[in-house]
Amino acid sequence: MAAVLKVVFVALSLSLDVFAVSIGVGIRGVPPGVKWRIGIAFACAEVAMNVIGAALGLAAGRFLGDIAGYIGFVALVALGIYMIRESRSELSGASKLDLSKGWGLTVASLSISLDSLGIGFSILYIGVPLAISLAVIAICSVCSTAVGLALGERLGNFAERYAAFLGGLLLTLTGLAFIALKIFHLG
Prior knowledge:
By secondary structure, the protein is an all-alpha fold. The chain has helices at 2-27, 32-64, 67-88, 102-123, 130-183. It has one domain (2-183). Helices cover 84% and strands 0% of the residues.
């Protein structure tokens, strides 16, 4: 049960980044049919990067043994700190691309999924089957996209900036918690 809660917490942390980008897209206005396309694109990018990260983590685990789990969790902390730093920069919400289609959607999907690469590296060490982890992450991504798009016009740039910050903070705290649990053999 504790492992499932870990995956849910990671998925929610990742989905805050998706939520932030979705708010940015929602501010510009998105027709209802486009919301599904964006949600599916974001979820597919998140899952694909997790799979790539998990494959890299598995390969590292074979070469590095138990230390690979710690490296993955440290990467998670570093990623969270990076997200916090990026959320504070003036460039975090300055995109002029149309993030609802074409190249803009591709760029947005890749940008929000880079953190999933780091998560994927450590996800094998959480103790939940990969398929379940990926399903939870995909569901949270689609839901966060839908909510972000719906609230985009109402919440404006303020929420976009702080959702990214909160996502980074949660990833940092999650990585630190996983390290502590592993050190003290609690999870």
